[in-house]
Amino acid sequence: MEGAEAAGRGPATILILGPTAVGKSALALELARYVDLEIVNADALQVYRGLNIGTSKPSPDERALVAHHLIDILDPDEAFSAGDFRRLALPVIADIRRRGKTPVVVGGSGFYLRTLVEGISPIPPIPEVQRRAVRALWQAEGLESVRRHLRELDPESAERIAAGDTQRTLRALEVVLATGRSLADWWASGGAGPPLEVGAKLGLTLPRALLYDRISRRVERMAEAGWVQEVADLLAAGWAPISPAFQAIGYRQVVHHLRGELSLDQALGDIARETRRFAKRQLTWFRKEPAVDWIEAEPRVGQLSAALSRIGRGREND
């Protein structure tokens, strides 16, 4: 397969995908015991410095065992898009391959992964005055007002973007106001750059009841680990509550709690509920992705054996 990663420059890239809390990072670390690999983060929040507990960011010990890339590269007030992810990830992947190692891209953002593999039409830079205008509308009238404008100008994006997804809603309105074209129109106009050579797509899955239980327990563990204090420290350091990093599920609710708008129990309940809905949307997206080898996340021994088998099969077909 021709593309950004020409054949003969080291092992092809492996993708590990699936819903939140299913165990993608754990599988990548297990694989590192048998495969000479480096991990490329495809989580849209782990790119932010200081967002550690609420993103399940790899620990310092885990990062010492296996090289991780695209973690802690942005401040909380910096925007990050799928196009930005591809632009940064491709040279990292190429370098890993040149050194004879296997790049393993790990993440649950279906659009980021699709953009990485297929490319995306470049959207012109949005003028800062336009960004400020959209955010002023959001602050003055609320997210529903922004969504109402988006439904009028770009109904396809309004339908696709979840009702509580502030960052992507603002981004979609910025694009259509600044360019006169919808996000869907930009995406449909063709990918930017050649495709990425992929050796295997490993999709982790669990019965829904087990996955939802994992999500609930993870939210509890994050709270016990000091998530609220983490957010309080970020705000005390001067990062504004309207920063892109704080619009994500979890961080948004903790900010509301710190403002006195939600009790801790209410905030954690909302986080678990929204995360379950997010996981459902992730599964819907990934089930439509081509060529995914689905692996049951439990039992762990069977999961690892299946993953190694799929990787080996992919290399035989190179």
Question: Mind explaining what this structure looks like?
Answer:
It is a single chain. Helix 2 links the parallel strand 2 (37-41) and strand 3 (68-69). Helices cover 53% and strands 9% of the residues. The chain is built from 14 helices and six strands. It folds into two domains: 13-120 and 191-316, Rossmann fold (3-Layer(aba) Sandwich), CATH 3.40.50; 128-188, Histone, subunit A (Orthogonal Bundle). By secondary structure, it is of the alpha/beta class. The radius of gyration is 20 Å and the shape is globular.
Task: Give a brief outline of the structure.
This protein has 14 helices and 6 strands.
CATH superfamily of the largest domain: P-loop containing nucleotide triphosphate hydrolases
Helix and strand run:
EHEHEHEHHHHHHEHHHHEH
Count of folded domains: 2
Overall mean pLDDT? 90
How many beta strands in the DSSP annotation? Answer: 6
Q: Which CATH first-tier class of the largest domain would you pick? A: Alpha Beta
Percent of residues in helices comes to 40-55%
What's the main sheet like? 6 strands, parallel
Task: Tell me the number of helical segments per DSSP (H or I, 4 or more residues long).
Answer: 14
